[in-house]
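YM 10:42: Porphobilinogen deaminase, chloroplastic sequence, as discussed on the call
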Amino acid sequence: MSDFPLLLLLVALLSPLLSAVGAFTPSVHPSALHRHRPATLAYVDQHTRHRSSLRMQQTSTETDVAAAGEGVKTAGAKRARLIIGTRGSPLALAQAHETKRRLGEAFPELAEEGAVELKIIKTTGDERLDIALAEIGGKGLFTKELDVALLAKEVDICVHSMKDVPTYLPEGTVLACNLPREDTRDVFISRKAKTIRELPDGSVVGSASLRRQAQILAINPTLKVVNFRGNVQTRLKKLEAGEVDATMLALAGLKRMSMEGEATSIVDKDDVLPAVAQGAIGIQCRSDDTQILEWIDALNCPDTKRCVDCERAFLAQLDGNCRTPIAGQARVEPDGRLKFRGLIASPDGKRIINVDKEGPAQDAVNIGKQAGEELRATCGEEFLKEIQEQVGQAFLKTPTIGSGPTA
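YM 10:58: structure's back
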């Protein structure tokens, strides 16, 4: 009995509070709860499935990017300080990664995670593997799409194998930097002979280069040279499958991918003079981008740049492209003098004309120009016309090995 008054007091105190709560609580019929619940659950299920789908898409994208070599920026992510445009081949990615590493070593702010990003850009030259380069436009097929991305500010720099870069550049861009040059020589790869000179008569050699073709046929006119395109890995697979008896590749590319062990032998420059700018990596940027110019200038190798500039000046003087068998190599001696050797040949290798020039290294461009003028005067315009005619006729006869997508 003594607890009853206390209970009445508690009820009296709580009643106003319960009434207030009731005023703010909507009256929902049980059947209404039943009708609303499935819609809520449907939304949750849809939202969950959407998030799951996004996770699957993200995982797929990350897998594709990892397989390609390095990240393409996710939509909505913060822009990197510097975006490198590159082709997607293993060699191109190796060169882009080398550039990224050197930038990080030179500038701490570019070593931070996400500061430098790689953007893979497909070029026409990478996709059209069923036809000789010279027939569909030559060197520019490996750079055109990169040029467009650079001028559109989708990328800040483009990393190139310099031997693939035309002697002309789009207005508003500049090749401001060359990394230290790798070994410029070619390598011979075969399971049937140790050197090009030891190949049996009539052997089939795969090469996409008129420069190599001319010099190979000058060594042995009985050899058959077929157009052989694709990235390094693709060509090696075709060789292993017996589609050709031998091939030649740039030693620099193999070394950058730690694949120099694939070489049967290194070709002497006296047998096959390397391509203009072979073994050199070039970095292209917009000519008015002062910050980028400052960054990449720190990576430049002055001797490499002088040699590359000399060789490209020589090539430009001869209007050289993939339709002309031209080779050229410059080197800076310890005494500061630059020595250059160049040649032009007929595609059948029956005629090769050489030129040698030297001078102060700081005069590299003029040395290249003078060498080109001298060689042009020696061979004559008629010989240059004959080369183009011979190249055009060869397209109708030369089979293509290595068509299809690159591996």
